Amino acid sequence: MSELLAHLRETNDRHNRVWQIHFLQTLPVYMAMSTFDDLYQDLFGTDNGLVAYRLMQGFDNKTVEMGRALWKLSRQVLGSPMLSAALAESGASNVFAALEQSNEGRAFLADFHAFLDVYGRRGEKLGVGFITWIEDPSHAIRQLQEYISQPNLDFDSEMASLATERERLVAEARVPISAYPQNLIDKFESMLDYAQQATIISEDHNYYIDFGAIYQVRQVLLEFGRRFTEAGVLDDPQDVFMLTSQELRDTATFLPHIKRQGIVAVRTAQMAHFRQVTPPALGTLPPGPPPEDPLSRTIGKFFGAPAPEPEHTDGILVIRGSSGSSGTVRGIARVVESLADAGRLMKGDILVAPTTAPAWTPLFATAGAVVTDTGGVLSHSAVVAREYRIPAVVGAGVATTVIRDGDLIEVDGDTGVVRILSDQDSDARG
Fold first, then answer.
1. How far from 233 is each of 204, 250, 260, 411, CA to CA, in Å?
2. CB 159, CB 21: distance < 8 Å
């Protein structure tokens, strides 16, 4: 146990250093994208909406790479009647059992586990307490099945099209500014280069730091959980996440003499209680608009502005957020609180979620549009929606509580407006 405690100390030291790097790069990355958007609007006018971000699209990154790898696995399945039949099973456990019955199935399982080994160190949200795809591949299986259900999807062609459009828009932007002073031309080119590199870094850091580093810490903590369970001081390895760091070290030091079942039960009940509690808003926003400077604008573009209250316009309930990705789409709303509910999302449905993390990315190939409670134009939800060319309204505040699963809604990604078109439960909405 002393060696594991020493390993935990080393892991914490590495983790602290990784997160120092995280915060050293995060602000410059989002500042680069935001200030290029500011420059573009200064040069071409504020009515250009999200065009500046289209000059940053279509670059490979770890999120795109994961989507491509999963899509290639789906094409492998579509080319085999046996694999197609096996993946038609509803549950991951059934899928694995079916694949184990043949050499071809076992070969595919090897490819699938190789995929997980590279891209499976992610949970649906950030945090050591969230199960990863490697531990529970069912989320990856469900998203693979979604790709399989779209036989005409060509991931590589879509990405190539994004890159072609990007280069066309860059070339078009260079024409009018060619008559400008050279120092302004140089500023445009350098800021464009920084912004394009930043779009790659913003997604890659999710892979290496936000999920990759947390995965390593989770595995160390789970090893404590396994040993504590074997010693009888916990009932389940996952219960280790209910302990403070000091309680974990004390339990390990005096194993098996400190029982933790009681405190785990209390905290589990407390967690269940507070999941049902809406936290109160503390304080009030300062009067007037936020400061008009590059840093404030960047923060606003990432987190989004406070959403106004929903309102009725011409008898239709309207929710407003931030423009995340261009386009207007009508479809059936699917309110998805976690990836466990993602199987309800059908092709063309509108994904309505509190927010989305990189593990949610394959759902964007299925969704007709995205609406989130939180985030701004630089949030992960908006960035990925632009890469998948689907409309997005982000930072809509109460979307997941006001929009009902099954509603017919219209998403206008250019104006940041969501209209609830179905009239079911109209009286209850108020």
1. 39, 12, 6, 51
2. no
